[in-house]
Amino acid sequence: MEDTINDAGAIIKRWDLDASTSYNRVANLFKDYREEAQQLLDAVKTLQHCMHFVIKESSSSELLVHAQTLMQIAMKRLQKEMYTILTGNRYFLDSETLSTRSSRQSTHSSVSDDEINEITDTEVSISTRVSEVEKVSELVMANLKAIADCMIGAGYGKECVKIYNLNRKSVIDETLYYLGVEKLTISQIQKMDWKVLEKKTKNWLSAVKIAVSSLFHGEKILCDHVFAASEAIRESCFSEIAKESALNLFSFPEMVAKYKKLTLEKMFTVLDLYNSISELWDELELIFSFDSFAVVKSQAVESMVKLGEAARFMLTEFESAIQKDSSKAKSGGGVHPLTRYVMNYLVFLGDYSVAFSEIIADFPLSIQSPLPESYADDSPVSVRLEWIVLVLLCKLDGKAQYYKDVSISYLFFANNLNYVVSKVKKSNLKFLLGSDWLLKQETKVKLYISNYERMGWNKVLTSFQENLTTEMSLREAREWFMKFNSGFEEVYRMQSSWIIPDPKLRDEVKISLARKIVSGYRTFYENYRESLSGGGVKSVVRFAPDDLQNYLSDLFYGTGLSEHGTTTYGSSPSSSLSISTSSSPSHADKLVYCKFYGLDLTSSYTPQALIGCYGSKG
């Protein structure tokens, strides 16, 4: 036994760091002397086996003391080798290389022989370079594992883990620093200007995916490999190097959610943060699977909860802002700025459909009257979106009272509802609101246009209905043309400044009016033009059918002279969403609601209470 210990000792002393004559003191043993490195590991195992035998014989023998001294020399050398490997091979131990290696191994295991045969020369070249890096990485990891197994087996696991943890924790801290992740307090966050905080949030959003999918994932792969011999050491080691940084990383979104100056436009920053955690959740569960990381997952959940609360608060403020908006209707009956603001906001919300759905799932509407039956089968997010659109449309009802002519009110309704439909169709909102909802709104647009045509062109259209099949005398014909001329000119002057912004809807209305007006006029024109060709015919038959067509073609661009249009609509329209000091509907709002829905003006109505009326009457 003594000879065996001496033989092992001879190998160990060759790599003694304290031997002043040893030329190998600064050598990279596991890189430059692979065989000797393996001999050293074998010598340690042999020495350990001998020490167990000697202890059984005599726990205080000189031979045991000598063996213990040799073991300390070996452990000191192995500590130095682990430190050298960890510090000198960061490139081959970077998280991206480790996580890529893991994913490639997983992919290769599922690739068939036929697929391998289809790999191109370029792919082979790239694969070769990657393989070379992987080979070095695998060798480095194997060396670390061999040292860790040897030291842990010899009872020096604590010393091994200390060196490993110090090095790899610094790697995580440095990487997060370069990614722009800072350690901030809630006090610092609250004092920040939003532009500064927004920039930090963008940095965080860019960093979190890399931090989770590459950095923490790679570190767990390395830790699991190096300390494969002990699950307890794997957990304590990974927890030591990653838990603090992970907690700091996932506490940032919660602090943003508590920012005291959250306003409507900050909704999408909040949803970005929520979305990023939600999308990474499966990876978080996998990477932070140890019990010691429960606090990290709890922090991520708490951040999502607070972000959800912030989003729900801002959504409530958004609905309130719509109800409080005090801007006037646009001259010309065009799309109101409030409509554009609300729908653009909802379109952005639709881009966060998954996160928005999760946030809204347990956030029921708080209204005084029941929702229409048509809402019953819809999802919570659909109901919420339908409700917001309904609040908008009810508000637009109130703004329409600034028009003195009811026909432009209908044009105003048609333009705004058509804009709503258009924005829904071109965004993710179409999936959230559904085809049935869209069909109902399109039907309402057609109804509004029909009412506009009937009431806006009443003086012109009724003349055809009354006289189309009646034979007239020349005097009656002359009077008919004079009446038509007067009616058409009056309507044209009034509507010359009216507008239909949507080209498709504008053309549809023009075609519809031409079909009703030009076709009817052509009959009278052809029947009586020759008979009235006597003196003053131009003063009586002032329009040819093509002239009427041209006049109609010029309408709905909003380019007419203001004195010919309906300009007495109150003050000029607001260019942005404005907030009044009261959430109660104005007296003017109530007048319009009563006019449209036959309500009792003496009663007290809130916008919420009107939902049944709007839902049933459109």
UniProtKB/TrEMBL annotation:
One of its GO terms (cellular component) is exocyst. Keywords: Exocytosis, Protein transport, Transport. One of its GO terms (molecular function) is phosphatidylinositol-4,5-bisphosphate binding. One of its GO terms (biological process) is protein transport. InterPro entries: Cullin_repeat-like_dom_sf, Exo70, Exo70_C. Residues 202-554 form the Exocyst complex subunit Exo70 C-terminal domain. Belongs to the EXO70 family. Component of the exocyst complex. This is Exocyst subunit Exo70 family protein.
